[in-house]
Amino acid sequence: MPKASRKPEDFIMPLIINGLEGRMLKIPAKGKGQREILFVYGSHSTLERWFGLAEELNKLGAVTMPDLPGLGGMTSLYKIGFPANIDNLAEYLATFIKLKFKNKRVTIVAMSLGFVIATRMLQNHPELVKKTDAMVSIVGFTRADDFKYPKRRIFVYKQISKFFSRKWPAILFRYTALQPLVIRSIYHRTHNAKEKFQDASGDEFRRTMDTEIELWHKNDVRTQFKTYIEMFDLDNTDRRIDLPVYHVTAKNDRYFDNVRVEEHMRRIFKDYKEFFSKAPNHAPTVISTAKEAAPFMPAALRKILKK
How many CB atoms lie within 10 A of CB 200? Predict the structure, then answer.
């Protein structure tokens, strides 16, 4: 009989840390002596969205992927009296590593905003650098000027983000702009979403749109807009980390200038190695299988991580 395909729910369990309630995906290693991999997703995420990448990483070892506060359906930091800034998200991640990995060494694979958070965590907690055997960036960044956007657009994005990161405007946004009918009518025409839908039609378009609606509803509005503000003011280059970084980049990344990303990462990490993803852009909405996720793990990087 053919082997049954694995599903995200087979590996998801509850996660409670310091009054924050969310979920964690944990896939055991397929063999002895393999890596312990912590995957840190970015904004606009759920465990289900990145299950395909978790399965691809599982070829290299055990994979743990926790929700982040305010993202993926987890309780937001605002609910326990803290702003959703990078330092507080980094502190949560440090607590998670100390609780869940204890005496184990860990390989950190972090995507986009997740890489920002993981970098700040290692800067704030140098003792965790010794527990980290590899640091992998998937389309990550470290400074606000890594963005390709013109200054005028960044100014507009920052003002919008500042407004909707406040409590009552965020509630208004959630119950008006995020109505499914509104998203289905408008979202695919917005500047940052056009690329996600440009090659999608029929069932693929509907699948992408359904996923986008779920992502917008599962992720806390205030947290998302607060992290956008932080990203547009970001500078993580002020402190060194005694680790090399393996950076996977998309040649046609719609968000970041790859030359500036490399320059800034070299200021932080003791070495920098770049690998080009075969993915056409920053990240598609739906990556539900290992095959769809494979372009984010180039063969040369996979070879290094198998050692």
Answer: 17
Q: Is residue 120 part of a domain?
A: yes
pTM over 0.90: yes
Residue holding tokens 């312990």? 36
> What's the pLDDT tens digit per position in 31-79?
887 899 999 999 989 999 999 999 999 999 999 999 999 999 999 999 9
| DSSP state letter for 74 | P
CA atoms within a 13 Å half-sphere pointing along the CA-CB vector of 165:
18
Domain span at residue 92?
A: 8-147+236-305
- Answer whether residue 3 is part of any domain: no
When computed from its CA atoms, the radius of gyration of the chain, rounded to whole angstroms, is: 18
Q: What is the DSSP letter of 2?
A: P
- Count other C-beta atoms under 10 Å from residue 232's C-beta: 17
Residue 23 β-bridge partners:
14
CA 180 remoteness from chain centre: 24
Q: Which of 207, 227, 247 is the last residue of a domain?
A: 227
